[in-house]
Design goal:
44% helix; 17% strand; Arc Repressor Mutant, subunit A; Rossmann fold; 7-stranded mixed sheet; 9 helices; alpha/beta; 9 strands
Length: 212
Amino acid sequence: MKEVSRIYSLPLPTIRRYPIYLRAIKAKIAGGDLNVSSAVLAEELGLDPVLARKDLAMAGVPGRPRHGYPAKELCDAINRALGWDNATDAAIVGVGSLGRALLGYSGFEEQNLSVSVAFDANPALNGETIHGVMVHPMTELPRLAKRLKIKLAILTVPNFAAQSCADNLVDAGIKGILNFSSIQLAVPKGVIVQNVDLAQSLAVLSHAIARG
């Protein structure tokens, strides 16, 4: 999380689009392209060309007319801007159905994120290994977070337990929480919460389908 201040110096919409650009650029590199064009990327991703050009310019890699950007250099620069150039260890808190699924999710590796430990309040899960990650009781959180230097947690607990778990995470020194509950967490200044609201996304889809 040492990159937080640098990340948030970029506009949030740009930050949210950067992973999309990364996937497209990596596909170009895999196909043998040495350079990428913001206009081509914009067309493929359904984005405004001017917006794409501004987004990519913020990565700090100069492009050349008729050549575009050096693909590998641009890919590395976006990773640095997002703080994905250094491996980050994370913890999952809540090992229900969603937590178990995320423990088996290989996509975290693309962001150089390693889920190295899991926690759950259910004593029956203590010591269980899921997708190679051991589950520990919540009482072990402060000790293991410090020993493993974990600053990021993925919160997948029921709504009624979300705030108390967030309080425990803050007390353990966690600086970033990816929150899958629908509760708006109250955290002190210096702790960043990113909400993943599945209900909100489903509402947008349902509304669009109903109007169609």
